[in-house]
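subagent[fold] <- orchestrator: predict structure for attached chain, return tokens only, no commentary.
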Amino acid sequence: MSSADCLFCKFVSGVVEPDVVGETEHSLAFRDINPQAPTHVLVVPKRHVANAGELAEVSPDNLQDVVLLARAVADDEGLGGDYRLVFNTGAGAGQSVFHAHLHLLGGRSMQWPPG
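subagent[fold] -> orchestrator:
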């Protein structure tokens, strides 16, 4: 998928407007349209890369920025330090948009192991 066809790139560029809850120079955080918890936010790097491993390889600083923005959003959402961060990599793991994105989940008890 090219970045021109990528939904999250359209969010980053403003072509499509998500429900933004946070932003830095390098990352964007917005509410998931199919929430799996009371707080379910996606945090994406503004640069198009397919998954978390690729992001770590091409830009560890951007990966750090994604995680730090997730922490800031969790604080803003009042999660009190109780939240889950998840990267899905590949269709078999549930990744449906092939632009790296971190799920921030909170506001309810989390079970282990996850589904």
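orchestrator: received. Logging for downstream: The longest helix spans residues 60-76. The chain has one domain: 3-106.
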